[in-house]
Design a protein that fits this description.
By secondary structure, the protein is an all-alpha fold. The protein is elongated.
């Protein structure tokens, strides 16, 4: 069974309370993924990308590719 939960970190520690169907398990595998981002962080990255000349050049190239479809 797979159980996924986003947990808060306090004092560099994480406490996970397992659901009842994990009772009597001797071992579980824990995977740590620190890529959880908030909506605010994602919006800041989008705003930053909107000023990136390489990103804007890529968008223009894609738009030009689709112009021939019309």
């Amino acid at each position: 069974m797979t159980y996924r939960k986003i947990c808060s970190v306090h004092n560099n520690q994480v406490i996970v309370i397992l659901p009842p169907n994990f009772e009597n398990r001797k071992q579980v595998t824990i995977t740590i993924d620190d890529k959880v981002e908030s909506k605010v962080q994602k919006m800041a990255q989008i705003k930053e990308a909107s000023l990136d000349p390489l990103f804007l050049a890529d968008i223009l190239e894609i738009n030009n590719d689709f112009d021939s479809i019309n």
